[in-house]
Structure formats: C-alpha cells, structure tokens
Design a protein that fits this description.
11 strands; 145 residues; 5-stranded antiparallel sheet
Length: 145
C-alpha cells in the first residue's frame, strides 16, 4: 500500500517508520523518483523515502519554485547553484547534479530567471506564520486548478 503525504498550505506531513514528520515546502531541495519510491531531499541533509507517485507530489507542490527537470526529478530552484546548459544539469547547493531533459531546458531557463532574488525569500520563511508576508508567497502558493 502506498504511503500518503499530506499537503497543506506551506507544509507537508510525511509518514516514516517512527510516525509522521512535518516539513515546510521551503526546506525541500529536490526529489528523485526511484520506482516505486520518491526520495525527498531536505535541507540539513534530511532524506525520506516514501512510496508515492512523483506526479502526485508534483501536483500538490506550490507552483513556484518547484519544477520538473525530467520524468524522475523535481527541484526547488531556490536551492540551485548553477544550471549547466551544455550538459543539461542543475547543480544544487549541496553539489548534487540533477539531469534536465531536452524538453525542459527552456522551462528551466525561464523559471530560473523568475525565481526570487533573495533565496530563500527571507530568513524566517520556513517557519513564518505571517499570512500577509509578501516575501514567502512563492513558497506558499498552490498550483492553479
């Protein structure tokens, strides 16, 4: 039976062997799909493996700054260090290299140009409870239905 990640306005609840843990979307650096598991890589070297479809995760993550690089990878562009166009790779802040499919190169380029200048948007973005804050809106907007 597949695990169920619960998605909320700014956070997700992830089932683990020891119960459930809550993480803010802003803490999620990237996701790698390794059938049948999604391996979620968070800041501070926290990693969870959850049996769930990558499309379900993508459908429930905020519209920006998350982008699908290829069939098996989603990245949070706030954690990217560089995009190497000739090798089609995104280099993350932890030096992990994630491949980008040919079809997604232009989407990645335009998304990188549109991410906030401040990354993360503000020092308290991950734990900010202020709904009026304009700086955390990138991490709290849901995809348009």
């Amino acid at each position: 039976m597949k695990s169920q990640i619960l998605f909320y306005d700014r956070s997700m609840i992830i089932p683990t062997n020891r119960g459930h843990v809550t993480h803010f979307y802003g803490e999620l650096m990237y996701i790698i799909f390794d059938k049948p598991y999604c391996v979620l890589h968070f800041a501070e070297n926290v990693i969870y493996s959850v049996e769930i479809a990558i499309q379900h995760v993508m459908d429930n993550l905020p519209k920006a700054p998350f982008i699908k690089c290829e069939r098996s990878a989603i990245v949070n562009l706030c954690y990217h260090k560089a995009f190497i166009r000739n090798t089609r790779e995104i280099v993350m802040v932890n030096s992990e290299r994630i491949k980008v499919s040919k079809q997604n190169v232009n989407d990645i380029n335009s998304a990188i140009k549109n991410i906030p200048i401040i990354s993360p948007p503000c020092p308290n973005c991950y734990t900010c409870r202020n709904d009026e804050c304009e700086r955390h809106i990138v991490l709290s907007q849901k995809k348009d239905e």
